[in-house]
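Lesson 9: reading folded outputs for more than one chain in a single document. The general rule is that every protein is listed as its sequence immediately followed by its structure tokens, and records are never interleaved. Here is the first one.
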Amino acid sequence: MSPERPFTDSGTEHQTEPDHPRPAEEVAAAMPTPNRFWRMMTDPGFPSPASNPAPLMVTAEAFLGLTSQVQALA
């Protein structure tokens, strides 16, 4: 039997990188600003939900198929 010793990572040291601030363009892409949101809502080239009047329809066959799949998972 070998003597017990605490687990240590003998060859490598765990180094954490300091929390660097992100570049402005990366932050802007990750989080939309209120100004961007407003432009999206007022842009005439952006299609509104009302421009697509077709309702979303699910057939009874598709609904029953999904229901049976969910029941099989449970």
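And here is the second record, again sequence then tokens.
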Amino acid sequence: MANLQTVDDREETEAARAYLSKEGDGLKKLIHKSIQAREFAYCPYNKFCVTVDDREETEAARAYLSKEGGGLKKLIHKSTQAREFAYCPYSKFRVGAAVLAHDGTIFTGCNVENACYNLGICAERNAISKAVSEGYQSFRAIAISSDLHEQFISPCGGCRQFMREFGDSWDVYLTKPDGSYEEMTVGELLPVSFGPEDLTKKKVHAIQEF
């Protein structure tokens, strides 16, 4: 079976180059087309999730991640334990995650694959979904582990957006099997992001001509 060819390595046509040239108005037309397409959006819901990263952290969560205590090591260890349960017969790529809720409760998850590939779920989403199903929506940190030795594990784009749903200021710990880690916030992991609060912002419903 012939491999599908990506389109970014195909030769650009003169028409496409001209369309987006700075001298022409093709880019404006392209943007205008996206605005026209917006008019067909199906979004009947008017209730939105509220970001929770501005809620006050509890003492339990703060203490858990304090440098003086061993909570961070425990959180990372929980993620490595979860990795052992990964169901990944197709990729052989094991991932574990441990998410710390605002009150110090930890929820773990692993990646679970499926013969219908797109039905698989990543460890990060698994852990967060488990927490949400137990009534938690405010998180302080998440630790992610894999079998990669040469580099820190990095979440896929879908998981980054999934984490962003619950705020952009909570911490992410990307780890290696030796226990070393790289720390960043969800906002740093997914900059210039789209979140629930964007759905509440003022919108322009009329098509504007450029």
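What the second record shows: Confidence is low (pLDDT under 50) at residues 1-7, 46-55.
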